């Protein structure tokens, strides 16, 4: 669903207006704390469009959530694909892995409610889009440090960057984001050993 920094497909003007209204209403519902009640029916009602329009455009709630995280996700992808080091090219692979994981934690925390909703969706939604891009990038970096098992290691490093786990660590265990990042530093050092 989310292209890797691809250009958006051209849309009819009315379709673009409807899409924007839908996104704005959904974003407002989330900002107002109505995350749990985010339904395509409610969004359609708030955007004054037919529910069929919302379903055709986004497919399901996970599709709408992916659309809501799209802009920030594109900026994040641009940073690790073409931005300055250490997140972007130019730093040694181990430094890039650390910087990428730290930036990804910040990325998920920044839109935690949306990532929580995405994780509640079907596995195809959770493991496609951003996850697939993050996995591909991280596996490529890991292959430069430790070629054997890079795909598995990428999954193993991405698994704890779950919105539900991050919220639990922060809100229940009282861990700061910096403490969570320090845990990842220890984990990545063990991989290099």
UniProtKB/TrEMBL annotation:
Domain HTH tetR-type, residue spans: 16-76
Pfam families recorded: TetR_N
Chain residues forming the annotated DNA-binding region: 39-58
Record flagged with keyword DNA-binding: yes
InterPro entries reported in the protein's UniProt record: HTH-type_TetR-like_transc_reg (IPR050109), HTH_TetR (IPR001647)
Keywords: DNA-binding
TM annotation in the entry: none
DNA-binding recorded as keyword: yes
PANTHER family per the UniProt record, alphabetical: HTH-TYPE TRANSCRIPTIONAL REGULATOR RUTR, POSSIBLE TRANSCRIPTIONAL REGULATORY PROTEIN (PROBABLY TETR-FAMILY)
Annotated protein name in UniProt: TetR/AcrR family transcriptional regulator
Organism of provenance: Nonomuraea guangzhouensis
Lineage, highest ranks first: Bacteria, Bacillati, Actinomycetota, Actinomycetes, Streptosporangiales
